[in-house]
Amino acid sequence: MNLQTIQRFAKSHFGITAKAKKLVGHVDLNYYLQTDEGAEYILKIAHFEEDKEYLEMQNSAMRHLEGRTNELQVPKVILNKKGEGITTIQDDKGKDRFMRVLSWVPGRLWVDVNPHTENLLENLGQACGALSNALKDFDHPSAHRNFNWDVAQANWVKKNFNLFEGEKLKLVSYFFELFEKQALPKLSNLRQSVCHNDVNDYNILVTKDLEYPKVWGVIDFGDIIYTNTVNELAITLAYAAMHKPDPLTAAASIVKGFHEKNPLMEEELEVLFPMIAARLLITVTSSAIGKKENPENEYLQVSEQPAWNLLEKLRLIAPELAYYIFRSACGFEACPQKSGYERWLSKKPAFAKIINFDLSSDRTHQMDLAVDSLEIGNNSEFDSPTTFAHKITQILNEANTQVGIGGYGEIRPFYTTDEYQDEGNNGPRWRTVHLGTDIWIEEGTSVFAPTDGSVHSLQNNEGDCNYGPTIILEHNVSDELTFYTLYGHLSLESLDDLEVGQQIEKGCQFASVGAISVNGNWPPHLHFQVILDLFGNDGDFPGVAFPKQSEIWKSICPDPSQLLGLKNIPSKKTVSNIDVLRKRNAFLGKNLSLSYEKPLHMVRGFKQYLYDATGRRFLDTVNNVPHVGHQHPRVVRAAQKQLAVLNTNTRYLHENIVHYAEELLDTFPDELSVCFFVNSGSEANELAFRMARTYTQQKEMIAVEVGYHGNTGACIDVSAYKFEGKGGKGTPKHTQIVPIPDTYRGLYRGDDPKNGKKYAEHVRQTIENVKKEGRNIAGFICESVLSCGGQIVLPEGYLKNAYHYVRNAGGLCIADEVQVGFGRLGEKFWGFELQNVIPDIVTLGKPIGNGHPLAAVVTTAKVAEAFNNGMEYFNTFGGNPVSCAIGREVLQIVKDENLQKNALELGEYLTSGLKELQEKFEIIGNVRGHGLFLGVELVEDRSTLAPAAKKASYIVNRMREHGILMSTDGPFYNVLKIKPPMCFDKSNADFLIKTLEKVLHEDFCSAD
Predict the structure, then answer these.
(1) How far, in Å, CA of 60 to CA of 45, rounded?
(2) Please, which residues bridge with residue 873 across strands?
(3) In sequence order, what are the residues at sequence separation of 6 or more whose Cβ sits closer than 8 angstroms to the Cβ of residue 157?
(4) By the 8 A CB rule, do 883 and 849 touch?
(5) Closest by alpha carbon to 239, among 207, 197, 209?
(6) What is the pLDDT of residues 395-421, one digit of tens each?
(7) Bond preceding residue 947 cis, omega within 30 of 0
(8) Whole-number Å distance between alpha carbons of 104 and 110
(9) 861/30 Cα distance (integer angstroms)
């Protein structure tokens, strides 16, 4: 029908004067109406064969829901001029059709919302549960009908198997059998009610809040039916789990939300996974039929490929595991067999020793191999089988024992490399929670059965970090309980004399511990694991779990301690993030800030990565302090070796300080020839100010707008970033601030080669102003690339001209290299070299000690001599042997590992990738920097340069969710700063660019 006809219908029958717009529809003709006053409606014209009673049922259901789902909006029925909810009209072919007008529910379709966060998925479950709960006391005769889209009636798809072939036929056959055997027989005993029956991604409405969206509406009651209550949830899950890397985790969030509003029975959870699959079978079968009968109707096929993709993912999931995950989401014990197993344990007499050693004695050592373990130490201690074996031997020798034991439920750092990486719904993830108990013992040690059983399976799980030779025993305890025990990292000989089904009596020796060469490249040990459900596996079973699923897997694989005869093994105390935060708030200053909306609890670092308490690995793109990499093994060893021998102050002779000073000065121009060692960048700048004031006998310091130079009193006094911000008191006496030399949004913009001189002119004017008041300046401090200012690259000629004006006035020029020195900028070792100048004083910090409190001031002999005015300079810890040993090692690593070259090459590569994003996304206004010191300035409008601070904060928090640590800088906090450890590599850059692009596509970032 043409739009004029629709507008005429609206006015003549409902008194609504509005403009009409055609909408997509499956069966009905749908039109959007909007009046001049802004009122919105949807006009629906039913198929000419539609039953009026069925339309009456839809209207009744919507009226029933009014007032019952305050948190969930549904369309309201608009009555015609006669007070009727259904109007009969004639279409343009003269056929009678039923017409209805409903109120328009505003919002965004679920399919258009990006991202589907865990909170939003749970909220969807709550909305669906509330809808289901509100409909439980509604009924209508027309709801009781035969309907192909009723999941409980999915039997009809079987007769259409001829539409499929190959892998697709295998898929539909597998899932139909699952539905037929595990769901269909149980449906008659489950709750039934009227269901919406089509809570899909085109019928779910989400609020227009792009940052914290919520589900707030459901539309289209065209598929309403009386069926099993759990089907409402199954249908919602079938659509919401589409396009998710991990559909089961997404589904669990929805199940949790649904259960909060409409508690599910355990029996309903048993059929949920098969019912999800059945809905997908209906979808793909209907699409196949639709393509055959009506190939031009794209709407009929809109969910077909996503449904196939989801079926392929679900095929890889054991139905029992899905059931356990759904149980856990509802607060039930994940594995229902666990209670029976625990009852059996409570009545069982003592078990046989698993090795010929009393594991409950004091002669065993409780191993700590957790991610935060100080016992296992640096990642280099377990980065190869040889070093790991040596470390285990060292631990056992120090404990004066030959047997180490432990590991159940332990979050371990071994499984966080790229080889173990898996893609979750929020970026990469790793299985880090250990599900067995390890017995660390020499190779060849005999292994005995702790209780009667039979050989379930034998398999050599070859491959690095795999189980190696593995035996699984089956223990048929009763008709109600069968469990399994897994023995991993065995010798090859262990598999030779056994066969499947062979009986193994309690106390029988049936295996031995394998050597590194055959056991998966692990130090010799036995991995022992109890398993209550093998999920059909033979010869292998997961030995580690994702942290968020750890309680589920520990329910499937309970603690083996009792079977092993372990008693009074103290569990490692873990402190929750909430407890740490509470104590931090209680005992530390309130202005000690935390990063991110959800603070991170970091417990380990290595190279360019940080690891939180769950073992999740985060790519660090913002910490320039660990210059050569977090906990670089050579830095760690240098500190350990020197700390074990001597650490004292500089009033004694020691070669470390002079060797380090010599090596450090070799990186500077000859004019900079004297070192002073301190403990932090703040101390270095504080000392530099003292030197300048002593040398010139003046007090005035010139600093750059939005600059930050440290947290001491003198440093704060020249840090406009602080004194002009919250809590600041404005520009102090004796401080002069000049404009930030920002060619993107500053006073002088663009590529004008004179911009550097123009900005430096403000330094000259400031000096003249000070002189007019009868004073002079002590010095000028400027970072070689401005950090807190927003990663600002100084325009060419800025420092050369500024230094000229300062020196003509008798002042000293201070280059703050705390952030950018030591090769980070790639092209040059020191930032000031980019400006072709030589400062009078250079201050160093942060990267100089790779995280150890070490800093330095480097100056000319002339300035140093002036500072030697009779007042002793002494710093208790500055220049101590340990600090200098660390500093020397850091400097050497930069050279040995070609990190300056890496910064140059990676910086160019990363800059190129960021600029490609700039071409795609208007929000990226400017990409700038040198080497691995880059800034990405975000703007709402490229012409006005309105800063996109909220979006920058959003991006930082979303990147954190995806496993990348970023931060913001700049006077408006709208600059993403990128200054990672210098070992950052090409794969890291690719991951950063790929993830940033993904986040930039999200609704909050892409909104105008």
Answers:
(1) 17
(2) none
(3) 172, 176, 281, 282, 285
(4) yes
(5) 197
(6) 999 999 999 999 999 999 998 888 788
(7) no
(8) 16
(9) 85
CA-closest candidate to residue 27, choices 54, 3, 5, 65: 54
- At which residue do the structure tokens 């227009």 appear? 208
Distance (Å, whole) CA 255 – CA 246: 15
Asked whether the beta carbons of 590 and 935 are under 8 A apart, the reply is no
DSSP helix/strand/coil, 159? helix
Over residues 239-267, the pLDDT tens digits come to 999 999 999 999 999 999 999 999 999 99
Bridge partners, residue 204, by sequence: 218
Give the other-Cβ count within 10 Å of 944's Cβ: 8
CB atoms within 10 A of CB 1004: 19
| 154-171 per-residue burial string, b: 16 or more CB within 10 A, e: under 16 | beebeebeebbeeebeeb
Hey, what are 158's tokens? 């079987």
- Structure tokens belonging to residue 262: 């409409």
Q: How far is CA 198 from CA 111, 126, 218, 239, 506, in A?
A: 14, 16, 9, 9, 56
Contacts of 866 (CB under 8 A, 6+ apart): 691, 694, 695
Q: Which two tokens stand for residue 501?
A: 């089904």
Q: What is the pLDDT of residues 102-156, one digit of tens each?
A: 999 999 999 999 999 999 999 999 999 999 999 999 999 999 999 999 999 999 9
Cα 827 to Cα 823: distance, rounded to the nearest angstrom? 8
Helices (H), 921-985: 949-961
- CA–CA separation, 692 and 695 (whole Å): 5
Dihedral sign for Cα atoms in the order 462, 466, 471, 472? negative
Q: What predicted TM-score, i.e. pTM, was given to this entire model?
A: 0.95
Total Cβ atoms within 10 A of residue 478: 8
Neighbours of 316 (CB within 10 A): 7
The set of residues, in sequence order, having a beta carbon less than 8 Å from that of 285 and lying 6+ positions away, is: 157, 160, 163, 172
CB 681 within 8 A of CB 788: no
Q: CB-hemisphere CA count at 13 Å for 742? A: 26
Residue 157 gets which letter from DSSP? G
* DSSP output for 255-284: HHHHHHHSPPPHHHHHHHHHHHHHHHHHHH
Q: Using CB atoms within 10 A of its CB, is residue 726 exposed (0-12), middle (13-18) or buried (19+)?
A: exposed
- Give dist(CA 439, CA 515) in Å, integer: 14
**pLDDT, tens digit (0-9, with 9 covering 90-100), for 933-956:** 999 999 999 999 999 999 999 999
What is the distance between the alpha carbons of residues 199 and 236, in angstroms, rounded to a whole number? 5
d(CA 883, CA 638): 9
Which parts of 565-674 fold into alpha helices (H)?
577-587, 633-643, 655-665
* Whole-angstrom distance, CA of residue 656 vs CA of residue 647: 11
- Through-space distance between the first and last CA atoms of the chain, rounded to whole angstroms: 35
